[in-house]
Every structure is written in structure tokens, then in C-alpha cells.
Design a protein that fits this description.
The chain is of the alpha+beta class. The chain has one domain. A four-stranded antiparallel beta sheet has the order 1-2-6-3, with helices on both faces. Strands 4-5 form a two-stranded antiparallel sheet. Strand 4 and strand 5 form a beta hairpin. Helix 1 packs across helix 3. The longest helix has 27 residues. The relative contact order is 0.20. The structure holds cobalamin and iron/sulfur cluster (2 copies). The site of cobalamin has 39 residues, from helix 4, strand 6, helix 7 and helix 8. Cobalamin binds next to helix 4, strand 6, helix 7 and helix 8.
Length: 240
């Protein structure tokens, strides 16, 4: 199946970036339940771009405005994922929308599947030193969602890591959590790139602040030069 059709539909629903991953690329990835991917061969990765005005206002901690934006973008992503699922089902395929931001395990801080791993496999972006997915047009100023399907959609390829010698996110992190280690494709574990506990403690501390309530931060999102206002192509983007 040509991917243009599904990408056009996702775009009409409000997606800013869409890529399709071959699940063969994600063998060995952590999922909950362990057989989550059984019966599926593709994952559609959808990204929505965050509002620059919201991200630019962040200094060393999340703002109440970012908290509301986070909730709204998650809801929109879940809505788009559901609509893509229905679209694929109408074509006779099976599809499963994975929630944008549901934490399933608060001991090891994991979910059903990593949207970042899917997005990297689908060419939506590379994994930056911050561990975030960095898109060439919007930097890490995107949030992600995944739709698993058995529809034999044409797949995209991962893109090259372009962090180079940059250390902006590492310099900006208020708790020094980003180790400034390079990766060619993706990090083998969170600890390879991050002092994970430091980051976790910071976002949990943030969630106790007035009008925040979620484990969010936003500082490494703001710091990345790939997300800063450059002249962007004035049109919706596909991953390729
Ligand atoms: C739990 C969670 C957290 C936890 C743990 C974070 C973490 N790094 O795992 C806490 C609360 C600390 C957190 C913090 C943040 N989060 Co958070 N979080 C999640 C959530 C719900 C699950 C993540 C998860 O399961 N992690 C498990 C680990 C194992 O997976 P991973 O780090 O995602 O990926 C690893 C492997 O998959 C591997 N990998 C990549 N490709 C491949 C391929 C193969 C074959 C294999 C084997 C492995 C592999 O690379 C990664 C490093 O080890 C996701 C939503 C989702 N379902 O993905 C959002 C998500 C990752 N969070 C997000 C964001 C933005 C943040 C924050 C910036 C907070 C904020 N919103 O302001 C910080 C960033 C922290 C950081 N620098 O990583 C976004 C990232 C968007 C982006 N552009 O990348 C996500 C995707 C939510 C979304 N819907 O967009 N988060
Ligand atoms: S989310 Fe905040 S604490 Fe965690 S790595 Fe990014 S800047 Fe540092
Ligand atoms: S700030 Fe620099 S090092 Fe960090 S993710 Fe962006 S490009 Fe990579």
C-alpha cells in the first residue's frame, strides 16, 4: 500500500510529521505486554509540533501554559491516532492506537511501547543527546503518537543523527542530567545518554509546583537549535 494515502489522511487530521516504521527494525524492543507487536507489521508514527510561543517562555522549569499545552497536544494526538485507526479498519486492516502519554509502570517508568523508538525507525527524527526525537524541521518541539497496524504500508527509513558536537541541551539542563554522549542511531539504554535518576527527580519535583501537576520540564526541548525559529518550509511535512 502506498504510504501517501495514509499520510494525506493523517495530515488532514492535523498531523505535522508522519512516518511509517517497519516493525522488523524494532525487534527486541521493550513492550507491555511482551507480545504487543504480535500480528502487526507496521507502526505509523505521528508528530504534532509544539507552539513556539509556549516553549520559548520556558526558563528553567515548566510554565502553567506549557502544562495546559502538554495536555491539549496529548489529547489531539490521541484523537488523530483514533481516526487513523478507524481509517485503516475501514480499509480492512487491523489497527491499534497507542496512547500518547500513558505511563504504565512507575517503577521503571515505561509505557506500552516507546513512541521515540518508533519515530526513529519511521524517519521522523533522530535520537538527540537529550534522548528526545529531533526532527530536522521542528527539532524536539514535537510530541508523538503511534498506531500499530497489519496494513502493508510502504515504509520509511531512519535519518542520520545531526547532533554533531552540539551540547546546548546538556548545558541547559538545570540538574546536569544529559551526559553529552553521541549516538549513531539510538542509545542502547536511557542511562547511556542520561543520568536518568536526576532527570526523573527534577520532573517529579516539577509536578509538585503550583499549576503544573504533570512530570514535565521542557528545558531541553527549548534549548535545541534544531527547534529554534529558522525559516521553516511553509507547509506540512512528511518524514521523507
Ligand atoms: C515514562 C515517560 C517519561 C519518564 C521516563 C522518560 C524516559 N526517558 O524514558 C519521565 C517522567 C522521566 C519523562 C520525562 C520526559 N518526557 Co516523557 N515519556 C514517557 C513515556 C510515557 C514512556 C517512555 C518509555 O516507555 N520509556 C522507556 C524507555 C526504555 O524507552 P525510551 O527512552 O523511550 O527509548 C529507548 C529505547 O527504546 C531505545 N531505542 C530507540 N530505538 C530503538 C530501536 C531498538 C530496536 C531498540 C531495541 C531500542 C531502541 O532508545 C531509547 C533509549 O534507551 C513516553 C511516551 C511513550 N509511550 O513513548 C513519553 C515521552 C518519551 N516523553 C516525552 C517528553 C517530551 C518528556 C520530557 C521532555 C518532559 C516534558 N514533556 O517536558 C522529559 C524528557 C526526559 C528525557 N530527557 O528523556 C515525549 C518525547 C517527545 C520527543 N520529541 O522525543 C514522549 C514520547 C511523549 C510524547 N507522546 O511525545 N517521560
Ligand atoms: S527533561 Fe529537564 S531535567 Fe530532564 S534532561 Fe531535559 S532538561 Fe534535564
Ligand atoms: S541541543 Fe544539540 S545535542 Fe541536544 S539534541 Fe539538540 S542538536 Fe542534539
Amino acid at each position: 500500500m502506498n504510504s501517501g494515502q495514509i499520510k494525506d489522511f493523517a495530515q488532514q487530521c492535523g498531523a505535522d510529521v508522519v512516518g511509517v516504521a517497519d516493525l522488523e527494525r524494532l525487534q527486541g524492543i521493550h513492550t507491555n505486554p511482551p507480545d504487543l507487536l504480535q500480528g502487526y507489521s507496521r507502526a505509523v508514527s505521528v508528530a504534532i509540533r509544539l507552539a513556539d510561543g509556549v516553549i520559548n517562555a520556558i526558563e528553567d522549569r515548566p510554565t502553567p501554559l506549557y502544562q495546559q499545552h502538554y495536555l491539549k497536544v496529548n489529547a489531539l494526538l490521541d484523537d488523530i491516532a483514533l481516526r487513523i485507526c478507524q481509517y485503516l479498519q475501514d480499509l480492512g486492516s487491523t489497527a491499534l492506537p497507542i496512547p500518547a502519554s500513558q505511563i504504565l509502570n512507575k517503577k521503571d517508568w515505561t509505557s506500552y511501547i516507546s513512541h521515540k523508538a518508533v519515530a526513529i525507525a519511521a524517519g521522523v527524527g533522530w535520537q538527540g543527546k537529550s534522548l528526545l526525537v529531533v526532527n530536522p524541521d521542528f527539532g524536539p518541539r514535537i510530541r508523538l503518537v503511534t498506531i500499530l497496524t497489519d496494513a502493508p504500508i510502504q515504509t520509511d527509513s531512519p535519518i542520520k543523527n545531526r547532533c554533531g558536537r552540539c551540547s546546548y541541551c546538556s548545558d541547559a539542563c538545570p540538574v546536569g542530567a544529559i551526559k553529552n554522549v553521541s549516538a549513531t542511531s539510538h542509545y542502547a539504554s536511557r542511562e547511556e545518554a542520561l543520568h536518568f535518576q536526576k532527570c526523573l527527580e527534577r520532573v517529579l519535583e516539577n509536578s509538585q509546583r503550583d499549576y503544573i501537576e504533570s512530570p514535565i520540564c521542557g528545558v531541553c526541548i527549548k534549548a535545541c537549535p534544531w527547534g529554534r525559529s529558522r525559516k521553516r518550509k511553509n507547509r506540512k511535512q512528511y518524514s521523507l
